[in-house]
Amino acid sequence: MTRPDNSPLPYGSALPEHWDVVPLKHVAKLSNGYVFNSRDWTEYGTPIIRIENLNGSSDFNFSTLALDERYQITNGDLLYSWSGNPGTSFGPYRWSEVGQYYLNQHIFKIFTTIDKDWLYWSLKAATHWIERALTSGMIGMVHVTKKELENAPIPLPPMEEQRRIADFLELEVRKIDRAIDLHKRLQATLAEKTEATVEQLLLHGDTKIHLPSFRMPEAPFPTAFKIGKLKQASLRVDVGIAEAATHAYAASGVPLLRSTNIRANAISHQDMLYVEPWFAERNKSKYVRAGDILTVRTGNAGTSAVVPRDLDMSQTFTQLITTPSPDFSAEYLCHFLNSRTCRQYFESVSWGSAQKNISVPLLGNTPIPMPPPSNQRDIVVAIQRDIEFSSKLASLVGRAVSVAEERRQALITSAVTGQFDVSTASGRGVTE
């Protein structure tokens, strides 16, 4: 990690003249967490802080080992996750839980001689630079070594300014975080509302009709329509190529759709594989046609998508294929297969402990509403309209979240590099 210029910091502008800048190792000591193995875990004892616990997870492992103080964590300790995902599980954290905990590996405990809160915010600014330097803007895990982190430059104003700036950031960042949380809750509400509307349309065809609070004895779920089985609405329910295909892989040729290409109501062209035409023709009974529905068989079992025109005459590797009969809309059936009602059905009938699986018979026997063809078309149009509207709103909210996160980072970096006066935050105990 190198600085882009000769400034005292690789981020921000020149520091105030009366400030200093030092490597982290001059003001702090980093102590890595304990290397636990599975034999050290128990059902009781001292809870162990892992990376997921830094983000609020209450799922702890425990240990009855008697560990040295450097592995013990209490309320207010400053930690640094040195291996994780940028923006979520990498960087500085302040432990806020009461009681004694042990620290797992991949997390440093930081002992410092300067104001702990000031160091936390300084590390927040430095971490943003570290993430960009180590990933070059690419998405993926970030790993920083102890030596690299120890050499990270830390601005060092007089103690009074450290505390004043830290107090200012506590107050202002809390405001921004509240706004971000509000927008994220709005995103979740939009997603829930959209799912509920889609569910209502699929089962009743009219959002003004409320779901009944009871089920007819013969119906597996409440609906205004006749109930049938997927195989009754299909010309074919089959499984794709189930033999080894690696010997027939090619740089181009016939697309081979896998589970990673199947998203809810969409086919992804990312990381598409291809097979030689002769291999595809040898398995011609397995050809996938435009308008067919592909369903994930293992893992995210039940996730389904309609095959688009540009993937007509493709092949699929071990995924399930449904060819709807003329009286049934592929889009309607696909939306239902991805619905909450159908996901619950697949969860109840799928098999396998590590990964859930569904088979051709299970898929073919899936109970489905069977509205008249004209109703199906109207329902699909209404669903697509609602999803499009919700997507636009979600995009706007998502942009607002991104802007707020960018502003938060810019505020932190500017404050810890002395780029503006924070005199309104006058010492400890600043209140709103």
Provide tags for this entry.
432 residues, alpha+beta, Adenine-n6-DNA-methyltransferase TaqI, Chain A, domain 2, four-stranded mixed β-sheet
Would you write up a description of this structure?
The structure is a single chain. The chain has 432 residues and is of the alpha+beta class. Among the domains are: 20-156, DNA methylase specificity domains (Adenine-n6-DNA-methyltransferase TaqI, Chain A, domain 2), CATH 3.90.220; 226-370, DNA methylase specificity domains (Adenine-n6-DNA-methyltransferase TaqI, Chain A, domain 2), CATH 3.90.220. 34% of the residues lie in helices and 19% in strands. The chain has helices spanning 51-54, 116-135, 146-150, 159-204, 277-282, 330-337, 340-349, 360-364, 373-416; strands at residues 20-23, 28-32, 46-49, 61-63, 72-73, 78-81, 83-84, 91-94, 101-103, 107-112, 142-143, 153-156, 227-229, 234-239, 249-250, 254-257, 262-263, 266-267, 273-275, 293-295, 304-306, 315-316, 320-324, 367-369. It has a four-stranded antiparallel sheet, with helices on one face. A four-stranded mixed sheet has the order 4-3-9-5. Strand 20 and strand 21 form a beta hairpin. The radius of gyration is 28 Å and the shape is elongated. The relative contact order is 0.13. Residues 1-7, 207-217 and 425-432 have low confidence and may be disordered.
